[in-house]
Amino acid sequence: MVLYYSGTGNSKYIAKCIASALETDCLNLNERIKAEDTSSVQTEENVILVTPTYAWRIPHIVSGWLGKAELVGAKCIWFVMDCGSEIGNAAKYNRELAARKALTYMGTAQIVMPENYIALFSAPNKQEAKAIVENAKPAIRSIIDCIRNGMEFPAPRNNLYDRFMSGAVNPIFYKKIVKADAFTVSDTCIGCGKCAQLCPLNNIRLDKDKPVWGSNCTHCMACICYCPKEAIEYGKRSVGKPRYHFEALGVAESIV
Q: Region 181-191: what's the mean pLDDT?
């Protein structure tokens, strides 16, 4: 079984490709996390977790959910992490999580996908994003082959920089950077409520048909990137930057 959490669609795409190739089920963790549903999940023996990279690790909301939910029938787990550039030493923490779940750790794989974190970086334009997705397909195929053959993923890079970013920087990043304070909405907002619907932590409510952010944010960028009117900004950092979500590329959920 493939479990996935996705902010703006990259992880969902990868998860669907893997599930299709392996002819297995996919479970959307966004729905479980949003509903605060940590009830047990009946899985197959092999579990593949697909997530984006948040501050050089899997998102805290995903590791938190996994820590509470029982994966009935699971024996082995592979971690697949997409990122704009790198995953740091995330493998160490994934291995520890697998051990806490009494699962055989089968490795962590990195896949570079289009950047979406416009709170700090710039997202690619549509053509650039399509090229990045195309370049990711060989890595996805290799991942599928490893899982199909019951093999561990090759060990990812693990240098001093990686250990520092996933170790010391990750908690500081969450404490100092991951906040909703800077989100604003302009008069072009049509009150559709899509931002509130997509927020995995129910951190957005509509007040007089305008979104209002609370203090519980994970910086998934779904609200700002899926807004149909591009009415949401993250302070001045997002101004003028392309919005990115995978579905806008029109790419089929296939590696063919």
A: 96
The hierarchical CATH code for the domain 2-172 is 3.40.50
- Give the pLDDT confidence of 214-256 residue by residue, as tens digits: 999 999 999 999 999 999 999 999 999 999 999 999 998 776 5
Q: Which helix (H) or strand (E) holds 135?
A: helix 126-148
Measure the CA–CA gap between 173 and 154, rounded to whole angstroms: 28
Q: Give Cβ neighbours of residue 232 (< 8 Å, ≥ 6 apart).
A: 183, 184, 185, 186, 189, 195, 211, 223, 224, 238
10 Å CB burial of residue 114 (0-12, 13-18, 19+) is: buried
Architecture of domain 178-246: 2-Layer Sandwich (3.30)
* DSSP 8-state assignment for residue 157: P
Are residues 223 and 232 in contact, defined by beta-carbon separation less than 8 angstroms?
Answer: yes
46's enclosing H/E stretch is: strand 46-52
Cα separation, 38 vs 40, in Å, equals: 6
Q: How many helices (H) and strands (E) does the chain have?
A: 9, 11
What whole-number distance in Å separates Cα of residue 67 and Cα of residue 121? 30
pTM, rounded to two decimals: 0.96
The domain segmentation of the chain, as residue ranges, is: 2-172, 178-246
| CA dist 215 → 29, 37, 243 (Å) | 21, 21, 23
Residue 45 has pLDDT above 90, yes or no: yes
Which of 137, 131, 124, 59 has the alpha carbon at shortest distance from 94? 59
Whether the per-residue pLDDT at 202 is higher than 90: the answer is yes
